[in-house]
Design brief:
The chain is α/β, with parallel strands linked by helices. The protein is built from 10 helices and 17 strands.
């Protein structure tokens, strides 16, 4: 029996939630078992952090197909036609309310959806993010600037019909390839950031900044990391791949030197804005997290939150050879986490927890606390 009522799944129009026919309790148990089997029984595993089974997804990444008058917002079939997912039960209520209004705006501004097989049209994607307070960031991913004047012309209508849309922008992605967005962003509103309130912090999110898709579970992730870090009480922390500063801003405090490192200048600007407004003493650097540490004195603790590929051999070996005592590793891919740990035999995962960011899928987010052991305690010795 399905854990939630999804007509899209039942009709076969969308099968993205591959575990939907499995009860949520079983999903969570099986994911936890798989992670423990992969990373080892010696770790003290906390109970998994569960998600709400529906209404948790704060982002709608919609491919736009059809016509301007009757757009389809959703995913592509293999033949290039679209499946409308406006009724996806995973979206927050705010996204559900916004998507029909935005579909109306597509028609009003005459934004011709991009036809993938024919390689013509303008509007490729509609990217919408909802904050916990109900505000929205709306991004139109276009092939060119041709529709920009029409979008600007009808912005007053959008502001009246969807006042929650605090940040509106156009992203330009001119290439014909499976890339969600391009490098150039054109801001159309006076407000440049969406406030993501989480654990009492207003994290600023700019159009090209990354934030976890499941706000409530992300809040739990940051709280857990804070608890573990407070226990080991480091005086200095580096947060590598820091994004908009979620970990660094949560971990900063009196007597701690905290530095966040992130390659995206937009994300760093967001983190700096949050730190300034919240009065948090944390510094941020726009640099490659995999090379920035070379030639610098190692801190007491390093946080890493890499993409699915993991931190890689170079950074793992640097951590192994460094004087770092503890590592907090937040992984969205337990397989690459296990591979990275194999490059760090001096460290042992003493604490671990599964965070279910994406219910009904096999995706698993894992947080582990690594502690450096003596030579006689290393794995494999």
């Amino acid at each position: 029996m399905n854990v939630l009522d999804c007509g899209l799944f039942d009709s076969g129009r969308c099968r993205s939630c591959t575990l939907l026919e499995t009860s949520y309790d079983v999903q969570l148990r099986d994911k936890h078992r798989q992670v423990v089997d992969l990373l080892g029984e010696g770790t003290l595993w906390e109970q998994p952090c569960a998600s709400a089974p529906e209404g948790f997804r704060n982002k709608a990444k919609m491919v736009v197909t059809g016509t301007a008058a009757q757009p389809t917002l959703g995913i592509l079939r293999p033949d290039g036609t679209g499946v409308d997912l406006r009724e996806c039960p995973l979206h927050t209520p705010g996204l559900h309310a916004a998507l029909p209004v935005l579909a109306g705006f597509v028609g009003l501004a005459d934004l011709t959806p991009y036809d993938v097989p024919a390689r013509r049209g303008e509007l490729k994607h509609l990217l919408v993010t909802a904050s916990p307070d109900g505000d929205l960031m709306v991004r139109f991913v276009l092939r060119s600037q041709e529709p920009l004047a029409r979008i600007r012309k009808h912005l007053p209508w959008l502001a009246e019909a969807l006042p929650q849309a605090r940040v509106v922008s156009v992203n330009l992605q001119p290439e014909h390839k499976a890339v969600l967005e391009g490098e150039r962003e054109i801001l159309l509103t006076g407000t440049a950031t969406l406030g993501m309130r989480i654990n009492g912090l207003d994290l600023h999110l700019r159009p090209q900044s990354f934030f976890q898709t499941n706000t409530d579970v992300a809040a739990g992730l940051y709280r857990q990391a804070t608890g573990w870090v407070d226990e080991v009480a480091p005086a200095s922390i580096w947060d590598l791949y820091c994004g908009v500063g979620g970990f660094a801003l949560h971990l900063a405090g009196p007597g701690r030197d905290v530095v966040g490192v992130e390659v995206s200048a937009e994300a760093v600007a967001s983190a700096e804005q949050t730190a300034a407004e919240a009065g948090v003493a944390a510094a941020f650097v726009a640099a490659d997290a995999t090379t920035w540490m070379h030639g610098r004195a190692a801190p007491d603790l390093v946080v890493v939150n890499p993409p699915r590929r993991g931190i890689g051999t170079d950074l793992a070996r640097w951590l192994e050879a460094s004087g770092v005592r503890h590592v907090v590793y937040s992984s969205c891919n337990p397989v690459t986490l296990a591979r990275d740990l194999a490059e760090m035999p001096s460290f042992t995962a003493t604490r671990g927890r599964l965070f279910d960011m994406f219910p009904h899928t096999t995706h698993a987010e894992v947080l582990v606390l690594l502690e450096r052991r003596g030579p006689d305690q290393r794995r494999g010795s």
